Fold this protein.
Amino acid sequence: MSKYNATVELIDQIATDAANKGIAHLYTQDDELSGNLITLKSKQAVNFGSCSYLGLEFDNRLINGSIKEINSYGTQFSASRAYVSTRHYDELESHFTSIFESPSIVAPTTTLGHIAAIPVLVNDNDAVILDHQVHHSVQTAANLLKPRGIHVELLRHNRMDLLEERIIMLKQKYNHIWYMADGIYSMYGDASPVIEIERLLNKYPQLHFYVDDAHGMSCYGKHGRGYVLSKISMHPQMVFATSLAKAFATGGAVLVFPNEELARKVRSCGGPFITSGPMQPATLGAAIASAKIHLSDEIYLLQDELNENIKYTNLLLKKHKLPVVSESNSAVFFVGVSLPKVGYNMIRRMLDEGYYLNLGIFPAVPMKNTGIRFTITRLHTFEQIENMIAAMAYHFPLALAEENITVEEIYKAFKLQLPEQIEIDRSVKALINSSNLSCYSYKSINDIEGVDWDDLLGENGIYDKNGLAMLERSFSNNEREEDNWQFEYLIIKDYENRTVLATFLTTSIAKDDMLSPAFISDQIEQMRVKKGRYHLTSKVLSIGSPLSEGNHIFVDRTSKYWKGAMGLLLDKIASYQNQQDLSSSIIRDLDGSDNEMTDYLVSNGFFKLSMPDNHHINNLNWNTTEEFLHNLTPSSKKHVKRYILNYEDKYDVKILSGRELSSLNKDRIRKYYDLYLEVKNRSLEINTFDLPFKLFEQICKCDNWEVIELNLKSEYTKSKTAELIGVTLNYKTKTSYNFVLVGLNYNYLKDYKPYKQALYQVTKRANKLKLFSLRMGFTTTTEKTKLGATVKTSVAYIQAKDNYNMEALATMNSLDLETA
């Protein structure tokens, strides 16, 4: 499954979960509305989710304007604007030209406005930089540029220092550099640093600014022209877009241009202006009425009334010490709760109290940055605002306690400074669990006492006690940073000393594109040649290790304390992530159909992602080649005979283990390593760093490992001497054989099929040892299923500091490698 499909599945799960909890996909039950009260689930609630900040939707002038035009023109005038527009457009656009004092065009929606303008404004030799938090509608329009090969990249939110660095780099190659951002951002309510952007526009003639000020329209500036234009004048290198569906209280959007020619070009060439349906007469009539209010002095009275409500809200939030993520003068507020489960809890509690608020959750914000988003309008009374915030302050600690979250964790999740006056109980969850559970932590597998590790996890792969001891030796005291892993072992027991959970974690440097499509990794590897081996890499904490596969966590699901044990594990992970400033944490190789575990981890802020397919052979009970073939499908049987058995006599197959393996000289081990690198350097399906040579040396010293050599006989080699052209490194447990690493000479790949032969010889060896299963690892599904392997799907759960790296990688399909 692609990352995109995995993201869609996660969004669907979150939305469905919220709907099932009765806090999303709601419908009003009122026959009519006249203020800010709505009825939801048979209960009246004060609406703190409206973006109609000035409350003009109930103004009789807008209502009468709408009715008048319905009576004059009917419910619709259905024609493309490329052919004919109603007279209302001419009047409305004339009003907007007066409001903005620049040429203006009306569009049916803000999204369609972006889709019309951006592909026309951005030329083939331009570059685009998207603020990380720019509205999705702008990102959607920017995606239309990628098939044209236009360079599109992501920038950390509001980082003007990084923007200037990118301008200096990109201006050497591109005609124009478009920076696209919001005026006021819709989730946190923070603002774009437009004064600094204006400075950059004046400094760099190639820089252009495309800004969406949907949440600033009407609330700020002369004639309500918005936040951005209340701070700076319309710049010659700037295009301004805004929505009429929020404080303007009608519908549609406006695009504002620095000159008539640019406006004309977008009007003539922008796709939606040619093919999309027009705004309806009712909306146009209401918009004309609203525009007239904006052109009068009344707009300033409306702005003042809204501003008084915003100031009052800010004062009350400070009084009650709620963790507001971004302090601003906008009408959008965001109180951080960190994890989705706390957000669900708070929204439900507030709805029960008679207040409707929004849940800010993935994908609008990172999973661990969930919050309560609410908006303030001119229609709210001081009493309504005061009572709502008092209710939030009352329920906030109750919801945290119920979900085992501390205030300190929330402040850390949002990187907010913890107020000194708040007394933090750092051990709330430890106290809850201390009477029933104890967590033991170890730095080495050799330190674990009182638990038989191998009985819990030893049969799952290469991480029985011997295997882990070997990994510890291999990945310590190495020169390269990526070759040094930190190991941590956790054992959680109940009050009767029974193990409820056991796992191990590794901290290592990982490539951000590890699970990206191969063509993305190929681009990034070319970038790393120029920018260094650690470009787009992160320090990651993972359950298990980068070399192992399989279920790395033992959980006794029969214990009534298993969720408490999982909670302690997540506490440990969060603690390590904060202490070591890790980019992300991964719990991997779990069963994706385990809905209970999925719900638990997603509600605790983890993002579900499909892992590459894994492969097992569980039917090893055969005595002859004929019996083995009998178990295969007809097509697989034909394949094995033709491409494997027909070549087997061309090889001298040698199996090395024990003393024979440990006595190998360094040159032979180096040959294994070189063959491994041939495979590694050609495969980007799972893009990782090269394993260290030291690992191969340690493998040869460990009794559990075996090496299968494929030596091509002399009569078939180019040198006419026997030559090692394939090698597999395999790990034995009591019940399973684990195919871990492979090395191949690609010069012989086509003529002698060494990879196919390697898989077959591994299968034969597992059969000869009378083991119960053969684990064949990731990738090359076709080859492995031909030998009878079954595909086993699994998932990973990832918790990242933010979505930036994931979204930055998503822009790579059109990345220009010389400037990225």
The chain is about 40% helix and 20% strand. The first helix runs from residue 3 to 20.
